[in-house]
Structures are given as C-alpha cells and as structure tokens.
Fold this sequence. Notes:
The complex is a heterodimer.
Chain A: E1 4-13, E2 20-29, E3 34-38, H1 45-53, E4 58-67, E5 70-71, H2 77-82, E6 85-88, E7 95-99, H3 100-114, H4 122-135, H5 140-144, E8 146-147, H6 153-167, E9 171-175, H7 183-195, E10 202-207, H8 211-215, E11 220-225, E12 228-233, H9 236-244, H10 247-253
Parallel strand pairs in A: 3-10, 3-11, 6-9, 9-10
Antiparallel strand pairs in A: 1-2, 1-4, 4-5, 7-8, 11-12
Chain B: H1 3-13, E1 29-31, H2 38-47, H3 52-66, E2 90-92, H4 105-113, H5 120-128, E3 134-140, E4 143-147, H6 150-155, E5 159-162, H7 163-169, H8 171-177, H9 188-196, E6 201-205, E7 214-220, E8 231-236, E9 241-249, E10 256-259, E11 262-267, E12 272-279, E13 291-302, E14 308-315, E15 320-323, E16 326-329, E17 335-344, E18 349-358, E19 364-373, E20 378-387, E21 395-404, E22 410-419, E23 425-434, H10 437-445, H11 450-461, H12 463-466, H13 471-484
Bound molecules: adenosine-5'-diphosphate and magnesium ion.
Domain SUF system FeS cluster assembly SufBD core (chain B): 219-461
Family (chain B): Belongs to the iron-sulfur cluster assembly SufBD family.
Pfam families (chain B): SUFBD_core, SufBD_N
Amino acid sequence: MAMLNIDNLHAKIDGDHGKEILKGLSLTVNPGEVHAIMGPNGSGKSTLSYILAGKEDYEVTDGSVSLDGEDLLEMEIDERAAKGVFLAFQYPIEVPGVATMTFLRSALNAQRKKRGEAEISTPDFLRLVKDKAANLGINQDMLRRGVNVGFSGGEKKRAEILQMAILEPKLCILDETDSGLDIDALKVVSEGVNALRSPDRAMIVITHYQRLLNHIVPDFVHVMHKGRIVRSGGKELALELEANGYAEYQQDAA
Amino acid sequence: MPAVQETVDQVRSLDVDQYKYGFFTEIESEKAPKGLTEDTVRFISAKKDEPEWMLEWRLEAFRRWQTMPEPNWARVSYPPIDYQELYYYSAPKRKEALSIDDIDPEILATYEKLGIPLRERDALLGIQSGGSKVAVDAVFDSVSVATTFKEELSKAGVIFMPISEAVREYPELVRQYLGSVVPVTDNYFATLNSAVFSDGSFVYVPKGVRCPMELSTYFRINERNTGQFERTLIIADEGAYVSYLEGCTAPQRDENQLHAAVVELVALADAEIKYSTVQNWYPGDKDGKGGIYNFVTKRGDCRGDRSKISWTQVETGSAITWKYPSCILRGDNSQGEFYSIAISNGYQQVDSGTKMIHLGKNTSSRIISKGIAAGHSDNTYRGLVTAHRKATGARNFTNCDSLLIGDKCGAHTVPYIESKNSSAQFEHEATTSKISEDQLFYCRQRGLDPEEATALIVNGFVKDVLQQLPMEFAVEAQKLIAVSLEGSVG
Ligand SMILES: Nc1ncnc2c1ncn2[C@@H]1O[C@H](COP(=O)(O)OP(=O)(O)O)[C@@H](O)[C@H]1O
Ligand SMILES: [Mg+2]
C-alpha cells in the first residue's frame, strides 16, 4: 500500500474569495522513496506542504489525501505529527524563551504520548540529542537558545533537520531546505537528511534548484506548475531542468 | 526546564474551568459577629490577647477608615462591597494547638491536599527526595495553625512566628516596625487591614545572619463570607539575608470574598530581602461568578545603605487584583526589583504594578513585568518611578511586555515617571503582542496540542521572571500558568 496518496487535490486560500492554488494535484509516495518536487516560484509547492501538515489557512475543495490508508485531511495538526508527518519549514518560526532543548523534548514526549508510548527518560534524551546534534554541527549553546531565535539562516535549517532526526517521522517534507545555505552547510544538511533515508521512511523534497539533488539523490522528480504536477520522471529530469530552466513553464503562464 | 513537561501533564489531567484548590473543609469555626464596628475590633484584639497599645492602634485605624472613601482609580470594576455583610474573624474551633498532633486532622488534611507539609518529618521526606528545606507558617482563615522548623530557626536567631504571637512575645520589635512602611493612614484597604488584621507572619533576621532556609507562609481562606486580612512584617537587620515565599488558595464559591492584606518589609544596611508570591486565589468561574477580591498593599523599605529588596510575583488567581508591591529606596546605593507575571483569563481583572521611590543617592531599580491576558479579561500594568531631589544618580530600567490570547481581552500599560533630579536615568520599554498563528502551527506540527503549545509559548514569554523564583516555586508556577490558561484557546 502506498504511504501517501494524493488524488486530484484542489485547494484554495480560506475565505469567500480565496484564490485557488492547487488545481488537481495527484501524487503517490511509497515507503523508502524520495520524491523531489521542483517548479517555479508561486507554483504552489509550499501550499502543498502546508496542506499536508494541516495549516488552517487553506480550504480543500476537492480530492483526497490518505496516509497509510487513513484520511489525512480529517486529522488535527498534532495528530498528523504523531502519525509521522514532519514538515521542515522554508521559514522556521521563532519561539522566544523556549530553549531548543526544551522544545525538542516537549515535542518528542507529546508525540510519544499520543502514540501510547512512555516518555523518554532524561539520560536517554540527552544522549539522543548529543549524538544527532554533533552530526549536524549544532553545539550546546544553540540548544540552550530560544527556538530559532537569533539563529542564522543556515542554523535554522540545521535545527529543522535536528528536529526531524529526533522525532523520526515516517513522512518527511522538506520545503526549500537548501535556500540560504552555502555549499558547506548544504553538505552538512544533506548528509543529515541522507542519514535518515530508510526503507520505511519516505521523503518529499521541495526545491527550486537542482543543486540540492546532487546531494540528496531522488528516486523521482516532479515538476509542479500552477498547482498541478505537469511532468514526472527520474533523477535525470532535474538535470534537464537545470539546463533549460523553467522557461517553458513560465511561457505557459504568460 | 523539564517542568514544561509537567505543565503539559497538568493541563491534561484537568478539565477546563477546574480550579484544583476549590474544595471546602468542613470544620467548626468560631466567628466574630457579622459586620464591622468598634466592638468587632475589640473582639479580634481580645481573641488575640493583645496588649493595650495594639488595641489602641487598631481603633485609631478603624476611626480613620470610617472617614475614608473607597479608591476608584484602578482599571477594575465591581459592585459596591457591603462591609457590614462580612465576617472579620473566623478561627477553627479547637483550642490552641500546642504541638502538631493537637491540630485538627481536618486542617492537616487540608494542607496535605494543597501539597503543604505541616509535619516536619513530612517536610524532611520531601527534602530527601530532592527538594530544599522550607519552613512554613500556615494561616487558615484568621489564625495561624502551624509554623514549622521554628526551633531550628531560633538556633540561628531567626524569629519566624505568627504575627499575633509576636505582638505578645516581641512587643518592642513589632511596635517599632509595624506601620513604619505602610502607615496606618496609607490607603483605604491598608487602613481597614490595620483595624482588623487577624494573622500573618512575622520574621526577624538578626544582624549578619543569612536565614538558613526559605521561609514561607501559606494562606487559605476557608470560611464563607469571611474576609482575610493578613498582616506580614519582615525585618532584615544589618547584613542579613532572607528569602520568603507566599502562597494562597481559597474554596470555589459563587459569592465574592475580600482579601485585603498588608505586607511590610524593612531592610537595614547591607540587608537583602527576596519576597516571592504565587497567588492563586479562586478566580471565579468561567462566567465571572465568584472569586476573591485581592486588594493588597505590599511595600518594602530599603532603609539602610546598600540594602536590597526584590519582589517576584506570579499572579494567576483572584477575580480582581489590585496590588502594587513597591520599594522605597531610602538608603544610598540601595536596590529595588520587581518581577511580575500576571495572568488573567475568563472575566478576571488585574490592575497591578509597582512603585519605585528613589530617595537615596545612586539607588537603582529594575522592573520586569509580563502580563498575559486571555478570555474576556483585562490586564493593566500600572507603575510609578520617581526620583526625589536628593536622589543623585538614580537609575531605573522598566520593561513591560503584554501578551494577548484571543481578541476579547485587553492589556494596558500605565507608566508614570517623575524626576526631580536631573541626573536620574530612567529607561522604559514596552511591547504588546499576540500569540501568533504561525507559532501555534509550528508547535502543533511538532506534535503539541493547542493547549500544550500555548503553555509552552507563554512559559517562554515569562521565562525572565520565572528564573527569579526559587526552584520549587518556579516549577509550581509553570504548572499554574498552564492551568490558568485552560480553555483560552479554541
Ligand atoms: N496564505 C496565503 N494567502 C494568500 N496567498 C497565498 C497564501 N499562500 C500562498 N499564497 C499564494 O499562492 C501561490 C502559491 O504560493 P506557494 O505555495 O508559496 O508557492 P511556491 O512555494 O511554489 O513558491 C502564490 O501566488 C502565493 O502568493
Ligand atoms: Mg515556497
């Protein structure tokens, strides 16, 4: 069975005159697969990721989304998280005064509780964070600071991947994780993501540039345009886009 | 701060609108006749076996009070209080308890339920499991029912006892300091308190002594239609140090109840007093019915040079809070601090803040106030910072942040600044913000439910103040914050 099945998804901005952003998008993702979604700015990539995570600014007008056969759209935001949906934000949000460490622990325990698991013990938690943080070049000082407060662009992205590594989600959605990263940071982050690839985990990697896909090599590449997937292929499709740009789609748009 | 997890558990384990301390203890009590006359004052004084001077002091206050109008400048509103419909004295009937075993088991059970160990051996058990030692004075309605670790404290020369006892045992000390910070004529509620105060704690820390443990008083209003008028007096003699905690709860009732306390602190040269409050009086139900009127006068006098007084308060309860813990910075180089978290939900009204009165040279003060308004509540910070002519080099830093949850509540900041000395430096910062949808979404995406997410964000907002509280109280306060915000998010 597919892990994620998006079928003919239509969605608009919530409200009476909200404009339609997703216009019949379909996508199937199986465990172990990494799907890249590429496309020009404004094509609806972030919107798709928000709708999968359950953000309330959008209204689904048609189509369906299921996760392991269950209706994802019916679930609360935090329920989706506990079922393993994780979104690495394009623009991570600041939570002042809440140490990153505290945040991680609260999140992990909240999810475990929802799944009927016991809370993680303090020593186990500290060990877990220490391991994962070291791989991502995140030091103790960063863990003590408020969530994303005063973090550089690169630090924010690394912190998102740290959260992902600790929460061990089933479905990872990465929204423009490469934006704002220099080449070294890109390598660190990509290694962090690759370390999480596994036969029972799936990933949707949203990016504007093919550069990221040299490091996180996808199984499938989709081109999204005007709220729909207009082309799908293997990893070579990314290279073709790199060579030709999105010009042909943008002309379409004009 | 692993306490966040406990906060979260706490929220889970309770239903919305459930005030955990709202139970009533069935116990026989002895009351003064209803209403307030000179006879009531005499009755209270006689019950406490007071010397003549104390009675005279009370009567003078009472006569003065009868001539005073009730203040109306605060941003709170309530129907007129009928002072003749209240009881001014209520005490559990059992005779004077000589040892802990003489205390009515119902009362012991009450404090147990509140998590306050009155038996020293229970308190010691708590310490073995990681807590630190805290001496407790437990005030039940109008009387102190137990004070723990008295002996151990007296070895260090520290006097810690109910003020009613101190009036009898240390009359010179009490007479010298009582009313010296908050004069009998200070304000309507303080004057009322001076006439009818029933019990509270007295602390004296002698020269050069660092009090060997935290001191705390736990106030409980139990009886119906009874006002609580506690009076606390803390004196830190030269070079002394003491940290004092105050906690309070009351049963859940449909009618409003009056609590008009006076707290006076005196810090002599090089002394330091740290006073922390976690105020959790019954706030009324979700429609605003019932709850405590908390009209309190708290003031500290930094009487000696280089003395320091620090107020930390976490205000989550009461239907109405009218409270301005203040510092008179009289000694040169003295310091005053005010750290406050004031949370209002439902129909609660909070008008709270501080006054920093700079009289001495090079005095400094610091005010950090975090107001959180949810539901239909109103939350006002009112502050006054003044520098007198001789207060050369006075400095103040004020930071007031307000956080709104929902759009039916209000937050207001009313800062007054007056300086008669041109070298004074006063800085003021204020912000008002809302919990953003983006923050909530982010937290929920990571697995927190809406209430957990709100509690976490609010705990982050108040972190600077929470850090000022002694460890155990910080944990308590965090839980309380989560509980008081229940039902505030849709
Ligand atoms: N909450 C919103 N309110 C208004 N317009 C929005 C909102 N979210 C997205 N949009 C609009 O929808 C379109 C798609 O945006 P987005 O999903 O961010 O695209 P991408 O991530 O592919 O750049 C854009 O035109 C954007 O302006
Ligand atoms: Mg985007």
